[in-house]
């Protein structure tokens, strides 16, 4: 059977590999560059959904191909849902994950001292996926609940993983659990599996 081509509005090889594994053998995933989109794709929305829709629409308008895009944010309760849509650039345009973590721990300590909601370190990662198929738009969201550690632990994962303790992982951070275990519970895994179930039901 011929594989169905679908473009992922991403240049990140790790994400493309994860999506290929989740979508399975019926699909061939092309990166944005492989579909001929080599410029930076605009991402200027006010919400995760706006951003994923903006990225998927950009690819669809340029290529006319079936495509999907994702956008992820970390929502911290004591910070009123911040950094949210600003997660990648929390500490500045450099997207430096170490600086981002330092700012997060600093802001939480400040909020705790101010006594907003004492001892509440609950947080979640949220991924919004937008799929455009046959010109129709569909959204799939996935969430991983957890809490923010007081200090970094673990060498695995990426981004905020060293300070994110997923619920049900015995207090280990996402940087301390095997990659497959994290993918099985992660926000991105959940949203991509929901999209895969939809695509495979068509
Ligand atoms: P993006 O939308 O995938 O680019 O992610 C936005 C921001 O969230 C980046 O700063 C990532 O480092 C961070 N992020 C996304 N997913 C994860 C994760 O699974 N663990 C830790 N950080 C993540």
Describe the largest sheet. 7 strands, mixed
Structural class: alpha/beta
The end-to-end distance, rounded to whole angstroms, is 16 Å
Mean pLDDT: 94
Number of strands: 7
Rg on CA atoms, Å? 18 Å
Strand coverage percent: 15-25%
Please tell me what the overall shape is: globular
Explain what this protein looks like in three dimensions.
The chain is of the alpha/beta class and 202 residues long. It has helices at residues 13-23, 48-63, 97-113, 179-185, 187-201; strands spanning 4-8, 27-31, 67-76, 83-84, 122-133, 136-148, 164-166. Strands 1, 2, 3, 4, 5, 6 and 7 form a seven-stranded mixed sheet that branches. A hairpin with a 2-residue loop joins strand 5 (122-133) and strand 6 (136-148). The chain is globular and about 55 Å long. The mean pLDDT is 94. Residues 71-72, 87-88, 97, 125, 157-161, 174, 186 line the site of inosinic acid. Inosinic acid (IMP) is lined by residues 71-72, 87-88, 97, 125, 157-161, 174, 186.
How do the strands and helices of this protein lay out in sequence?
Elements lengths: L3 E5 L4 H11 L3 E5 L16 H16 L3 E10 L6 E2 L12 H17 L8 E12 L2 E13 L15 E3 L12 H7 L1 H15 L1
Parallel strand pairs: 1-2, 1-3
Antiparallel strand pairs: 3-4, 3-5, 5-6, 6-7
The protein binds inosinic acid.
What's the short story on this structure?
Helices cover 33% and strands 25% of the residues. It is of the alpha/beta class. Strands 1, 2, 3, 4, 5, 6 and 7 form a seven-stranded mixed beta sheet that branches.
From the structure above, extract its key features.
single chain; 202 residues; alpha/beta; 7-stranded mixed sheet; 7 strands; 33% helix; 25% strand; globular; binds inosinic acid
């Amino acid at each position: 059977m011929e594989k169905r081509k679908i473009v992922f509005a991403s240049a990140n090889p790790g994400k493309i590999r994860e999506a290929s594994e989740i979508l399975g053998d019926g699909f061939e995933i092309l990166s944005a560059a492989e579909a001929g989109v080599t410029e930076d794709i605009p991402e200027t929305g006010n919400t995760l959904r706006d951003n994923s829709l903006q990225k998927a629409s950009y690819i669809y308008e340029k290529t006319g191909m079936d495509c999907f895009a994702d956008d992820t944010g970390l929502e911290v309760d004591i910070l009123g849902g911040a950094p949210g849509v600003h997660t990648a650039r929390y500490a500045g345009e450099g997207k430096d994950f170490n600086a981002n973590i330092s700012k997060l721990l600093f802001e939480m300590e400040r909020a705790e001292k101010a006594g907003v909601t004492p001892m509440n370190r609950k947080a979640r990662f949220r991924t919004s996926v937008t799929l455009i198929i046959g010109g129709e738009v569909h959204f799939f969201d996935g969430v991983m609940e957890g809490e923010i550690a007081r200090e970094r632990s673990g060498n695995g994962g990426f981004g905020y993983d060293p300070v994110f303790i997923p619920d049900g992982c015995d207090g280990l951070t996402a940087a301390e659990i095997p990659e497959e275990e994290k993918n099985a519970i992660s926000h991105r895994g959940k949203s991509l599996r929901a999209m895969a179930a939809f695509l495979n039901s068509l």
